[in-house]
Design a protein that fits this description.
By secondary structure, the chain is an all-alpha fold. It folds into two domains: 442 residues, no CATH class; 82 residues, no CATH class. The protein is globular and about 65 Å long. The protein is built from 20 helices and no strands.
Protein backbone atom coordinates (compact mmCIF):
# COMPACT_ATOMS: atom_id res chain seq x y z
CA UNK A 1 0.00 0.00 0.00
CA UNK A 2 1.49 3.37 -0.90
CA UNK A 3 2.16 6.19 1.57
CA UNK A 4 -1.00 8.19 1.09
CA UNK A 5 -3.10 5.03 1.42
CA UNK A 6 -1.31 4.25 4.70
CA UNK A 7 -2.09 7.74 5.97
CA UNK A 8 -5.70 7.48 4.83
CA UNK A 9 -5.97 4.08 6.53
CA UNK A 10 -4.81 5.66 9.81
CA UNK A 11 -7.36 8.41 9.38
CA UNK A 12 -10.12 5.88 8.64
CA UNK A 13 -9.12 3.70 11.59
CA UNK A 14 -9.55 6.66 13.92
CA UNK A 15 -12.80 7.64 12.26
CA UNK A 16 -14.20 4.12 12.62
CA UNK A 17 -13.28 4.01 16.33
CA UNK A 18 -15.17 7.26 16.88
CA UNK A 19 -18.02 6.09 14.65
CA UNK A 20 -18.50 2.96 16.77
CA UNK A 21 -18.33 5.07 19.93
CA UNK A 22 -20.86 7.52 18.51
CA UNK A 23 -23.23 4.68 17.68
CA UNK A 24 -22.94 3.42 21.26
CA UNK A 25 -23.42 6.97 22.57
CA UNK A 26 -26.50 7.42 20.40
CA UNK A 27 -27.97 4.14 21.62
CA UNK A 28 -27.40 5.25 25.21
CA UNK A 29 -28.85 8.64 24.28
CA UNK A 30 -31.94 6.97 22.83
CA UNK A 31 -32.37 4.95 26.03
CA UNK A 32 -32.23 8.29 27.87
CA UNK A 33 -34.10 10.61 25.53
CA UNK A 34 -36.96 8.42 24.32
CA UNK A 35 -38.33 7.39 27.75
CA UNK A 36 -37.69 10.96 28.89
CA UNK A 37 -40.25 12.23 26.37
CA UNK A 38 -42.83 9.97 28.01
CA UNK A 39 -42.04 11.47 31.43
CA UNK A 40 -41.75 15.13 30.44
CA UNK A 41 -44.10 15.30 27.46
CA UNK A 42 -44.00 18.19 25.03
CA UNK A 43 -44.17 20.81 27.81
CA UNK A 44 -41.25 19.40 29.78
CA UNK A 45 -39.21 18.82 26.62
CA UNK A 46 -39.74 22.49 25.82
CA UNK A 47 -38.04 23.46 29.12
CA UNK A 48 -35.35 20.80 28.65
CA UNK A 49 -34.55 21.91 25.10
CA UNK A 50 -34.45 25.60 26.03
CA UNK A 51 -31.95 25.00 28.84
CA UNK A 52 -29.86 22.77 26.60
CA UNK A 53 -29.82 25.36 23.80
CA UNK A 54 -28.41 28.02 26.14
CA UNK A 55 -25.71 25.62 27.33
CA UNK A 56 -24.90 24.52 23.77
CA UNK A 57 -24.31 28.08 22.66
CA UNK A 58 -22.11 28.84 25.67
CA UNK A 59 -20.24 25.55 25.26
CA UNK A 60 -19.52 26.15 21.57
CA UNK A 61 -18.42 29.73 22.18
CA UNK A 62 -16.06 28.47 24.90
CA UNK A 63 -14.64 25.29 23.40
CA UNK A 64 -15.52 24.72 19.73
CA UNK A 65 -12.30 25.99 18.24
CA UNK A 66 -9.73 25.09 20.90
CA UNK A 67 -9.83 21.26 20.60
CA UNK A 68 -9.48 21.57 16.82
CA UNK A 69 -6.58 23.99 17.27
CA UNK A 70 -4.90 21.70 19.83
CA UNK A 71 -5.34 18.70 17.54
CA UNK A 72 -3.98 20.58 14.53
CA UNK A 73 -0.98 22.05 16.37
CA UNK A 74 -0.03 18.80 18.09
CA UNK A 75 -0.28 16.78 14.86
CA UNK A 76 1.97 19.32 13.14
CA UNK A 77 4.48 19.25 16.02
CA UNK A 78 4.46 15.47 15.98
CA UNK A 79 5.15 15.44 12.23
CA UNK A 80 8.08 17.83 12.83
CA UNK A 81 9.54 15.81 15.77
CA UNK A 82 8.91 18.35 18.55
CA UNK A 83 7.85 16.47 21.73
CA UNK A 84 8.60 19.40 24.08
CA UNK A 85 6.39 21.62 21.96
CA UNK A 86 3.56 19.08 22.32
CA UNK A 87 3.86 19.30 26.12
CA UNK A 88 3.79 23.10 25.99
CA UNK A 89 0.76 23.15 23.69
CA UNK A 90 -1.15 20.93 26.10
CA UNK A 91 -0.11 23.00 29.14
CA UNK A 92 -1.12 26.32 27.58
CA UNK A 93 -4.44 25.01 26.25
CA UNK A 94 -5.38 23.36 29.57
CA UNK A 95 -4.85 26.58 31.52
CA UNK A 96 -6.86 28.52 28.96
CA UNK A 97 -9.74 26.04 29.05
CA UNK A 98 -9.87 25.98 32.86
CA UNK A 99 -10.32 29.75 32.84
CA UNK A 100 -13.00 29.51 30.15
CA UNK A 101 -14.81 26.68 31.97
CA UNK A 102 -15.02 28.53 35.29
CA UNK A 103 -16.19 31.72 33.56
CA UNK A 104 -18.83 29.83 31.60
CA UNK A 105 -20.12 28.08 34.73
CA UNK A 106 -20.52 31.38 36.60
CA UNK A 107 -22.20 33.10 33.66
CA UNK A 108 -24.75 30.31 33.17
CA UNK A 109 -25.52 29.79 36.84
CA UNK A 110 -25.79 33.45 37.82
CA UNK A 111 -27.51 34.47 34.59
CA UNK A 112 -30.05 31.60 34.43
CA UNK A 113 -33.11 33.72 35.22
CA UNK A 114 -32.06 36.39 32.72
CA UNK A 115 -31.47 33.89 29.90
CA UNK A 116 -34.68 31.96 30.52
CA UNK A 117 -37.05 34.78 31.31
CA UNK A 118 -35.80 37.86 29.48
CA UNK A 119 -33.96 36.44 26.46
CA UNK A 120 -35.91 33.28 25.63
CA UNK A 121 -39.33 34.08 27.14
CA UNK A 122 -39.45 30.64 28.75
CA UNK A 123 -38.88 31.28 32.50
CA UNK A 124 -39.61 27.65 33.40
CA UNK A 125 -36.22 26.70 31.95
CA UNK A 126 -34.22 28.66 34.58
CA UNK A 127 -33.78 25.67 36.90
CA UNK A 128 -32.47 23.63 33.97
CA UNK A 129 -29.90 26.28 33.02
CA UNK A 130 -28.56 26.30 36.59
CA UNK A 131 -28.44 22.49 36.62
CA UNK A 132 -26.40 22.30 33.42
CA UNK A 133 -23.98 25.11 34.37
CA UNK A 134 -21.32 22.82 35.97
CA UNK A 135 -21.01 20.98 32.66
CA UNK A 136 -19.17 24.03 31.30
CA UNK A 137 -16.16 23.35 33.53
CA UNK A 138 -16.01 19.58 32.96
CA UNK A 139 -16.53 19.73 29.21
CA UNK A 140 -13.93 22.49 28.87
CA UNK A 141 -11.38 20.27 30.60
CA UNK A 142 -12.38 17.32 28.40
CA UNK A 143 -11.75 19.46 25.33
CA UNK A 144 -8.08 19.89 26.26
CA UNK A 145 -7.49 16.18 26.74
CA UNK A 146 -9.45 15.19 23.65
CA UNK A 147 -7.51 17.65 21.52
CA UNK A 148 -4.26 16.25 22.90
CA UNK A 149 -5.09 12.63 22.05
CA UNK A 150 -6.66 13.51 18.69
CA UNK A 151 -3.49 15.38 17.75
CA UNK A 152 -1.68 12.07 18.14
CA UNK A 153 -4.41 10.48 15.96
CA UNK A 154 -5.38 8.35 18.97
CA UNK A 155 -9.18 8.37 19.04
CA UNK A 156 -9.67 5.68 21.72
CA UNK A 157 -9.58 8.05 24.75
CA UNK A 158 -12.10 10.38 23.10
CA UNK A 159 -14.33 7.42 22.29
CA UNK A 160 -14.23 6.05 25.84
CA UNK A 161 -14.90 9.46 27.39
CA UNK A 162 -17.91 9.97 25.10
CA UNK A 163 -19.39 6.65 26.20
CA UNK A 164 -18.93 7.35 29.92
CA UNK A 165 -20.27 10.87 29.42
CA UNK A 166 -23.41 9.43 27.85
CA UNK A 167 -23.78 6.84 30.64
CA UNK A 168 -23.60 9.56 33.28
CA UNK A 169 -26.28 11.54 31.48
CA UNK A 170 -28.48 8.46 31.21
CA UNK A 171 -28.19 7.15 34.77
CA UNK A 172 -28.26 10.41 36.69
CA UNK A 173 -30.35 12.50 34.28
CA UNK A 174 -33.14 10.00 33.82
CA UNK A 175 -33.11 9.05 37.50
CA UNK A 176 -33.37 12.68 38.61
CA UNK A 177 -36.16 13.43 36.12
CA UNK A 178 -38.14 10.40 37.34
CA UNK A 179 -37.69 11.28 41.03
CA UNK A 180 -38.57 14.96 40.55
CA UNK A 181 -41.64 14.49 38.35
CA UNK A 182 -43.91 14.90 41.37
CA UNK A 183 -42.33 18.33 41.95
CA UNK A 184 -43.49 19.56 38.53
CA UNK A 185 -42.23 19.74 34.96
CA UNK A 186 -39.78 22.59 35.58
CA UNK A 187 -37.81 20.72 38.26
CA UNK A 188 -38.12 17.37 36.50
CA UNK A 189 -36.65 18.80 33.29
CA UNK A 190 -33.88 20.41 35.37
CA UNK A 191 -33.13 16.99 36.86
CA UNK A 192 -32.87 15.53 33.39
CA UNK A 193 -30.48 18.20 32.20
CA UNK A 194 -28.37 17.86 35.37
CA UNK A 195 -27.34 14.49 33.95
CA UNK A 196 -25.33 16.40 31.33
CA UNK A 197 -23.19 17.93 34.09
CA UNK A 198 -22.66 14.57 35.78
CA UNK A 199 -21.82 12.93 32.45
CA UNK A 200 -19.25 15.63 31.79
CA UNK A 201 -17.58 14.88 35.12
CA UNK A 202 -17.44 11.15 34.34
CA UNK A 203 -16.01 11.76 30.87
CA UNK A 204 -13.31 14.05 32.26
CA UNK A 205 -12.27 11.52 34.92
CA UNK A 206 -11.83 8.84 32.23
CA UNK A 207 -9.65 11.12 30.08
CA UNK A 208 -7.57 12.25 33.05
CA UNK A 209 -6.84 8.67 34.11
CA UNK A 210 -5.83 7.65 30.57
CA UNK A 211 -3.60 10.72 30.27
CA UNK A 212 -1.84 9.95 33.56
CA UNK A 213 -1.16 6.42 32.32
CA UNK A 214 0.08 7.61 28.91
CA UNK A 215 2.22 10.35 30.44
CA UNK A 216 4.29 7.77 32.29
CA UNK A 217 5.43 6.30 28.97
CA UNK A 218 8.54 7.79 27.27
CA UNK A 219 7.94 9.95 24.20
CA UNK A 220 9.39 8.34 21.08
CA UNK A 221 9.61 10.23 17.84
CA UNK A 222 11.67 9.68 14.74
CA UNK A 223 14.79 11.82 14.71
CA UNK A 224 15.94 14.42 17.26
CA UNK A 225 13.82 16.91 19.18
CA UNK A 226 13.79 20.06 17.08
CA UNK A 227 12.87 22.39 19.90
CA UNK A 228 9.71 24.26 20.76
CA UNK A 229 8.01 27.58 20.28
CA UNK A 230 7.69 29.71 23.43
CA UNK A 231 4.48 29.38 25.45
CA UNK A 232 3.45 32.93 24.53
CA UNK A 233 3.92 32.11 20.84
CA UNK A 234 1.98 28.87 21.29
CA UNK A 235 -0.89 30.76 22.94
CA UNK A 236 -0.88 33.26 20.08
CA UNK A 237 -1.02 30.47 17.48
CA UNK A 238 -3.69 28.62 19.46
CA UNK A 239 -5.90 31.70 19.56
CA UNK A 240 -5.19 32.47 15.90
CA UNK A 241 -6.48 29.05 14.84
CA UNK A 242 -9.24 28.68 17.46
CA UNK A 243 -10.93 32.07 17.19
CA UNK A 244 -12.10 31.80 13.56
CA UNK A 245 -13.33 28.23 14.16
CA UNK A 246 -15.10 29.34 17.34
CA UNK A 247 -16.69 32.30 15.60
CA UNK A 248 -17.92 30.06 12.79
CA UNK A 249 -19.36 27.49 15.19
CA UNK A 250 -20.80 30.08 17.57
CA UNK A 251 -22.41 31.99 14.72
CA UNK A 252 -24.56 29.02 13.87
CA UNK A 253 -25.10 28.10 17.50
CA UNK A 254 -26.16 31.69 18.13
CA UNK A 255 -28.60 31.51 15.24
CA UNK A 256 -29.98 28.34 16.83
CA UNK A 257 -30.35 30.20 20.12
CA UNK A 258 -32.01 33.08 18.29
CA UNK A 259 -34.10 30.37 16.63
CA UNK A 260 -35.35 29.27 20.05
CA UNK A 261 -36.31 32.78 21.10
CA UNK A 262 -37.67 33.70 17.67
CA UNK A 263 -39.80 30.59 17.23
CA UNK A 264 -41.48 31.10 20.61
CA UNK A 265 -42.11 34.75 19.81
CA UNK A 266 -43.17 34.32 16.17
CA UNK A 267 -45.58 31.50 16.99
CA UNK A 268 -47.33 33.86 19.43
CA UNK A 269 -47.36 36.88 17.13
CA UNK A 270 -50.84 38.30 16.47
CA UNK A 271 -52.22 35.80 19.00
CA UNK A 272 -51.93 32.85 16.61
CA UNK A 273 -50.88 30.54 19.48
CA UNK A 274 -50.86 30.89 23.27
CA UNK A 275 -47.61 30.57 25.23
CA UNK A 276 -48.52 26.99 26.20
CA UNK A 277 -49.34 26.05 22.61
CA UNK A 278 -46.13 27.65 21.33
CA UNK A 279 -44.05 25.80 23.97
CA UNK A 280 -45.64 22.48 22.95
CA UNK A 281 -44.97 23.12 19.25
CA UNK A 282 -41.39 24.03 20.09
CA UNK A 283 -41.13 20.98 22.38
CA UNK A 284 -42.43 18.71 19.62
CA UNK A 285 -39.93 20.05 17.09
CA UNK A 286 -36.91 20.35 19.41
CA UNK A 287 -37.59 17.27 21.53
CA UNK A 288 -38.81 14.81 18.87
CA UNK A 289 -37.75 15.87 15.36
CA UNK A 290 -34.31 17.39 16.04
CA UNK A 291 -32.84 14.45 18.05
CA UNK A 292 -33.67 12.03 15.21
CA UNK A 293 -32.36 14.49 12.63
CA UNK A 294 -29.11 14.94 14.58
CA UNK A 295 -28.32 11.22 14.66
CA UNK A 296 -26.59 10.79 11.23
CA UNK A 297 -24.60 14.08 11.38
CA UNK A 298 -23.41 13.21 14.88
CA UNK A 299 -22.03 9.93 13.56
CA UNK A 300 -20.36 11.80 10.70
CA UNK A 301 -18.61 13.91 13.33
CA UNK A 302 -16.25 10.95 13.75
CA UNK A 303 -14.82 11.78 10.32
CA UNK A 304 -14.43 15.48 11.08
CA UNK A 305 -12.53 14.80 14.32
CA UNK A 306 -10.14 12.45 12.52
CA UNK A 307 -9.70 14.53 9.37
CA UNK A 308 -8.17 17.64 10.96
CA UNK A 309 -4.99 16.02 12.37
CA UNK A 310 -4.69 13.72 9.33
CA UNK A 311 -4.75 16.55 6.79
CA UNK A 312 -2.87 19.02 9.01
CA UNK A 313 0.07 16.63 9.53
CA UNK A 314 0.22 15.98 5.77
CA UNK A 315 0.25 19.73 5.07
CA UNK A 316 2.93 20.27 7.73
CA UNK A 317 5.39 18.19 5.70
CA UNK A 318 3.99 19.42 2.35
CA UNK A 319 2.53 16.02 1.44
CA UNK A 320 -0.29 17.50 -0.66
CA UNK A 321 -1.03 14.21 -2.43
CA UNK A 322 -1.96 12.52 0.84
CA UNK A 323 -4.00 15.54 1.94
CA UNK A 324 -5.92 15.55 -1.34
CA UNK A 325 -6.52 11.81 -1.19
CA UNK A 326 -7.81 11.99 2.41
CA UNK A 327 -10.08 14.90 1.50
CA UNK A 328 -11.69 13.07 -1.42
CA UNK A 329 -12.19 9.88 0.58
CA UNK A 330 -13.78 11.68 3.52
CA UNK A 331 -16.28 13.42 1.23
CA UNK A 332 -17.14 10.17 -0.54
CA UNK A 333 -17.72 8.25 2.69
CA UNK A 334 -19.89 11.08 4.01
CA UNK A 335 -22.12 11.10 0.94
CA UNK A 336 -22.44 7.30 0.86
CA UNK A 337 -23.65 7.34 4.46
CA UNK A 338 -25.65 10.57 4.71
CA UNK A 339 -27.67 10.42 1.49
CA UNK A 340 -29.64 7.22 2.24
CA UNK A 341 -30.19 8.46 5.81
CA UNK A 342 -31.73 11.67 4.46
CA UNK A 343 -34.00 9.87 1.99
CA UNK A 344 -35.05 7.18 4.45
CA UNK A 345 -35.80 9.46 7.40
CA UNK A 346 -37.68 11.95 5.26
CA UNK A 347 -39.92 9.34 3.63
CA UNK A 348 -40.42 7.29 6.80
CA UNK A 349 -40.77 10.14 9.31
CA UNK A 350 -44.25 9.10 10.47
CA UNK A 351 -43.58 5.40 11.19
CA UNK A 352 -40.18 6.23 12.74
CA UNK A 353 -41.75 8.77 15.12
CA UNK A 354 -44.52 6.32 15.94
CA UNK A 355 -41.99 3.59 16.69
CA UNK A 356 -39.60 5.71 18.73
CA UNK A 357 -41.91 8.08 20.60
CA UNK A 358 -45.45 6.80 19.97
CA UNK A 359 -46.08 10.42 18.99
CA UNK A 360 -46.40 11.55 15.35
CA UNK A 361 -46.97 15.28 15.91
CA UNK A 362 -43.50 16.08 14.52
CA UNK A 363 -44.05 14.18 11.24
CA UNK A 364 -44.06 17.20 8.96
CA UNK A 365 -41.12 18.94 10.65
CA UNK A 366 -38.99 15.77 10.63
CA UNK A 367 -39.84 15.05 7.00
CA UNK A 368 -38.67 18.52 5.94
CA UNK A 369 -35.68 18.62 8.27
CA UNK A 370 -34.36 15.22 7.16
CA UNK A 371 -33.54 16.63 3.74
CA UNK A 372 -30.85 18.69 5.47
CA UNK A 373 -29.05 15.59 6.80
CA UNK A 374 -26.85 15.31 3.73
CA UNK A 375 -26.17 19.07 3.75
CA UNK A 376 -25.27 19.17 7.44
CA UNK A 377 -23.01 16.12 7.20
CA UNK A 378 -21.08 17.54 4.26
CA UNK A 379 -20.85 20.97 5.90
CA UNK A 380 -19.23 19.36 8.95
CA UNK A 381 -16.63 17.62 6.79
CA UNK A 382 -15.96 20.56 4.46
CA UNK A 383 -15.56 22.88 7.46
CA UNK A 384 -12.99 20.46 8.89
CA UNK A 385 -11.13 20.31 5.56
CA UNK A 386 -10.92 24.10 5.33
CA UNK A 387 -9.85 24.41 8.98
CA UNK A 388 -7.16 21.74 8.59
CA UNK A 389 -5.66 23.53 5.59
CA UNK A 390 -5.38 26.92 7.27
CA UNK A 391 -8.53 28.46 5.78
CA UNK A 392 -10.35 28.93 9.10
CA UNK A 393 -12.07 32.19 8.19
CA UNK A 394 -13.89 30.81 5.14
CA UNK A 395 -16.35 28.65 7.14
CA UNK A 396 -16.96 31.68 9.39
CA UNK A 397 -18.17 33.82 6.51
CA UNK A 398 -20.17 31.01 4.99
CA UNK A 399 -21.85 30.25 8.34
CA UNK A 400 -22.72 33.92 8.70
CA UNK A 401 -24.39 33.95 5.30
CA UNK A 402 -26.28 30.71 5.92
CA UNK A 403 -27.26 31.72 9.46
CA UNK A 404 -28.63 35.04 8.23
CA UNK A 405 -30.75 33.25 5.64
CA UNK A 406 -32.08 30.93 8.36
CA UNK A 407 -33.11 33.80 10.62
CA UNK A 408 -34.87 35.64 7.80
CA UNK A 409 -36.77 32.54 6.68
CA UNK A 410 -37.81 31.70 10.24
CA UNK A 411 -38.94 35.26 10.90
CA UNK A 412 -41.41 35.27 8.05
CA UNK A 413 -42.50 31.63 7.79
CA UNK A 414 -42.98 30.71 11.47
CA UNK A 415 -45.34 33.64 11.97
CA UNK A 416 -47.54 32.36 9.14
CA UNK A 417 -50.30 30.34 10.90
CA UNK A 418 -50.54 27.94 7.94
CA UNK A 419 -46.81 27.15 8.07
CA UNK A 420 -46.03 27.87 11.76
CA UNK A 421 -43.42 25.47 13.19
CA UNK A 422 -42.70 23.99 9.74
CA UNK A 423 -40.91 27.24 8.90
CA UNK A 424 -38.06 26.23 11.26
CA UNK A 425 -36.91 23.11 9.35
CA UNK A 426 -37.31 24.96 6.04
CA UNK A 427 -34.94 27.63 7.36
CA UNK A 428 -32.43 25.05 8.61
CA UNK A 429 -32.43 23.11 5.34
CA UNK A 430 -31.92 26.26 3.28
CA UNK A 431 -29.19 27.48 5.62
CA UNK A 432 -27.07 24.34 5.36
CA UNK A 433 -27.62 24.09 1.61
CA UNK A 434 -26.19 27.58 1.16
CA UNK A 435 -23.20 26.88 3.43
CA UNK A 436 -22.39 23.64 1.62
CA UNK A 437 -22.37 25.25 -1.83
CA UNK A 438 -20.10 28.05 -0.58
CA UNK A 439 -17.75 25.56 1.13
CA UNK A 440 -17.45 23.39 -1.98
CA UNK A 441 -16.65 26.45 -4.10
CA UNK A 442 -13.96 27.44 -1.60
CA UNK A 443 -12.40 23.96 -1.51
CA UNK A 444 -12.18 23.66 -5.28
CA UNK A 445 -10.70 27.14 -5.62
CA UNK A 446 -8.37 27.30 -2.62
CA UNK A 447 -7.10 23.72 -2.63
CA UNK A 448 -7.17 23.29 -6.42
CA UNK A 449 -9.01 20.03 -5.82
CA UNK A 450 -11.06 18.41 -8.57
CA UNK A 451 -13.96 16.60 -6.92
CA UNK A 452 -15.05 13.30 -8.52
CA UNK A 453 -18.64 14.21 -9.43
CA UNK A 454 -19.52 10.68 -10.51
CA UNK A 455 -18.36 9.21 -7.19
CA UNK A 456 -19.86 11.96 -5.03
CA UNK A 457 -23.18 12.69 -6.75
CA UNK A 458 -24.12 10.46 -9.68
CA UNK A 459 -23.60 6.95 -8.26
CA UNK A 460 -24.93 7.64 -4.74
CA UNK A 461 -27.77 9.68 -6.28
CA UNK A 462 -28.91 6.83 -8.54
CA UNK A 463 -28.76 4.41 -5.60
CA UNK A 464 -30.71 6.75 -3.30
CA UNK A 465 -33.33 7.32 -6.02
CA UNK A 466 -33.89 3.58 -6.36
CA UNK A 467 -34.17 3.34 -2.59
CA UNK A 468 -36.71 6.17 -2.54
CA UNK A 469 -38.88 4.46 -5.17
CA UNK A 470 -38.93 1.24 -3.13
CA UNK A 471 -39.86 3.16 0.04
CA UNK A 472 -42.61 5.08 -1.79
CA UNK A 473 -44.44 1.86 -2.57
CA UNK A 474 -43.40 -0.23 0.43
CA UNK A 475 -44.09 2.22 3.28
CA UNK A 476 -47.90 2.49 2.80
CA UNK A 477 -48.20 -1.30 2.49
CA UNK A 478 -46.45 -1.80 5.84
CA UNK A 479 -48.56 0.66 7.86
CA UNK A 480 -51.10 -2.00 8.80
CA UNK A 481 -48.43 -4.35 10.22
CA UNK A 482 -48.07 -2.56 13.56
CA UNK A 483 -45.67 0.12 14.82
CA UNK A 484 -42.52 -2.01 14.80
CA UNK A 485 -42.91 -3.58 11.37
CA UNK A 486 -44.26 -0.37 9.80
CA UNK A 487 -40.90 1.28 10.48
CA UNK A 488 -38.33 -1.52 10.48
CA UNK A 489 -39.46 -3.44 7.38
CA UNK A 490 -39.26 -0.45 5.00
CA UNK A 491 -35.89 0.55 6.56
CA UNK A 492 -34.48 -2.92 5.87
CA UNK A 493 -35.92 -2.95 2.34
CA UNK A 494 -34.50 0.50 1.64
CA UNK A 495 -31.06 -0.38 3.02
CA UNK A 496 -30.88 -3.57 0.92
CA UNK A 497 -31.95 -1.68 -2.20
CA UNK A 498 -29.34 1.02 -1.63
CA UNK A 499 -26.57 -1.53 -1.00
CA UNK A 500 -27.45 -3.51 -4.14
CA UNK A 501 -27.55 -0.37 -6.27
CA UNK A 502 -24.23 0.96 -4.92
CA UNK A 503 -22.60 -2.31 -5.93
CA UNK A 504 -24.39 -2.34 -9.29
CA UNK A 505 -23.22 1.17 -10.23
CA UNK A 506 -19.71 0.42 -8.88
CA UNK A 507 -20.00 3.05 -6.17
CA UNK A 508 -17.38 1.33 -4.02
CA UNK A 509 -14.00 -0.10 -5.02
CA UNK A 510 -11.08 -2.03 -3.60
CA UNK A 511 -9.31 1.15 -2.57
CA UNK A 512 -12.29 2.15 -0.41
CA UNK A 513 -12.32 -1.23 1.33
CA UNK A 514 -8.54 -1.03 1.86
CA UNK A 515 -9.13 1.88 4.24
CA UNK A 516 -11.23 -0.24 6.61
CA UNK A 517 -10.04 -2.48 9.47
CA UNK A 518 -9.51 -6.13 8.42
CA UNK A 519 -9.16 -4.84 4.85
CA UNK A 520 -7.62 -7.99 3.42
CA UNK A 521 -10.40 -10.22 4.76
CA UNK A 522 -13.11 -7.81 3.60
CA UNK A 523 -11.52 -7.58 0.15
CA UNK A 524 -11.51 -11.37 -0.22
CA UNK A 525 -15.16 -11.59 0.85
CA UNK A 526 -16.21 -8.79 -1.50
CA UNK A 527 -14.36 -10.41 -4.41
CA UNK A 528 -16.03 -13.76 -3.71
CA UNK A 529 -19.42 -12.04 -3.67
CA UNK A 530 -18.37 -10.11 -6.81
CA UNK A 531 -18.98 -6.80 -5.06
CA UNK A 532 -15.61 -5.69 -6.45
CA UNK A 533 -13.27 -7.16 -9.04
Amino acid sequence: MNEHNNSSATFMHGAIILLIANIVVKLIGAIFKIPLTYILGEEGMGYFSTAYQVYTWMFIVATAGIPVAISKMISESYAKNRPNEIKNIFSVSTNLLITIGISGFLLLYLGADFFAGTVLKNPGAAYGIKAIAPAMLFVSLMSAYRGYFQGHQNMVPTALSEIFEALGKLIIGFGAAYILIEKGMELSSAGAVFGVSCGGLMGFVVLFLIYKKEKSKPVRLNGIDRGSETKSRILKNLVKIAVPITIGASVFSLTSLIDTAMIMRRLQVLGAFTHEEANKLWGSYSGYAIPLFNLPPTLINAITVSIVPAIASAYAVKDFKTASHTTSKSLKITVLFALPCAVGMSMLSKPILALVYNNINATSTLSILSVAIVFVSLVLVTNAILQATGNEMIPVMNMLIGGTAKILINFFLVANPKININGAPIGTTTCYGIILVLNIIAITRKLKLKLPISELIVKPGISALAMGIVLYFAAPLCLSLGRIMAATLPIVMGAITYAIMIVAVKGINEEDIALLPKAELLTKICKKLKVIR
